User: Which sequence fits this backbone?
């Protein structure tokens, strides 16, 4: 049944592209513009650099008190904390990508990787403060009104999965490296630095190209949905908003809704992330981690964000 629906969707999209070439061309240009002008220059350097950091064993430099602190406060190993921090700083889908890569390389266990998916893949701080706060909400809300509700929702979600789902067993046991073994590897690591850089660059381009493909497809899909006569107008508007995060936020900001409703809708959508982000996240997991923890956590976090906003405003 799923394959039949997928096949029907592809056929419907192809018919739309052939029947509306100008609309499809404009939508594809918008998607590629978003990818080339925003995603490529902001994410690609960090994808390359984080790939390099993962291969120089940066967590070996963390003192024992720091490791205990990571485990006590967040239920994470040093490598898990690394994925969490970069996920928060860089936004979708870097946190999920790092969790997947760290699991594949054996630096964290599968359970910690799936635990990370529940709270480390979110909009970046820069995105929330600039695009959401200034572009969409016109600077009417201070930073605390943008960050605190989302942070509290993620915190509650993290605690729920840590203690009720994974029963407190989330952090991978850290194996202290042998100093003699590290000394023996220094020469070979120095010789392979150039090769490592090449691999990280190619991996970064592969990931960013894959994300661009999803943005392109969802950009073309949006006008297809908006012109479909079979979908009711109300459901159509909701679907278009959750299709892609930046496009959805722009639609909400330009709507005739009351100011408070725009704020509530924009914050809730930012917590959810959109269907395009979900597809990108599933893509970067490469089948190494289950996608279910991410989707269930996003649903819980979205509901919690809305509840926190309704209580606090």
Assistant:
């Amino acid at each position: 049944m799923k394959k039949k629906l997928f096949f029907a969707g592809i056929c419907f999209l192809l018919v739309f592209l052939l029947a509306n070439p100008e609309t499809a061309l404009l939508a594809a240009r918008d998607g590629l513009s978003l990818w080339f002008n925003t995603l490529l220059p902001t994410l690609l350097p960090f994808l390359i650099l984080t790939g390099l950091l993962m291969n120089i064993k940066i967590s070996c430099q963390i003192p024992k008190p720091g490791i205990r602190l990571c485990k006590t406060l967040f239920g994470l190993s040093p490598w898990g904390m690394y994925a969490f921090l970069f996920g928060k700083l860089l936004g979708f889908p870097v946190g999920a990508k790092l969790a997947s890569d760290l699991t594949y390389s054996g630096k964290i266990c599968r359970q910690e990787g799936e635990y990370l998916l529940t709270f480390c893949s979110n909009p970046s701080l820069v995105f929330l403060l600039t695009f959401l706060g200034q572009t969409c909400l016109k600077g009417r809300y201070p930073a605390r009104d943008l960050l605190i509700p989302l942070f509290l929702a993620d915190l509650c979600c993290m605690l729920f999965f840590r203690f009720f789902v994974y029963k407190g067993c989330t952090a991978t046991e850290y194996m202290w490296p042998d100093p003699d073994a590290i000394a023996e590897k220094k020469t070979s690591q120095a010789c392979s630095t150039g090769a490592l850089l090449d691999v990280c660059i190619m991996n970064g381009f592969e990931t960013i190209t894959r994300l661009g493909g999803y943005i392109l497809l969802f950009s073309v899909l949006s006008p297809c949905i908006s012109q479909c006569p079979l979908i009711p107008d109300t459901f159509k508007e909701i679907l278009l908003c959750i299709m892609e995060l930046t496009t959805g936020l722009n639609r909400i900001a330009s709507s005739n809704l009351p100011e408070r409703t725009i704020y509530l809708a924009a914050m809730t959508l930012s917590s959810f992330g959109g269907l395009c982000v979900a597809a990108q996240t599933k893509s970067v997991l490469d089948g190494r981690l289950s996608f279910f923890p991410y989707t269930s956590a996003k649903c819980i976090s979205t509901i919690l964000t809305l509840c926190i906003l309704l209580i606090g405003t």
In short: The chain is about 80% helix and 0% strand. The longest helix spans residues 21-54. The chain has a mean pLDDT of 84.
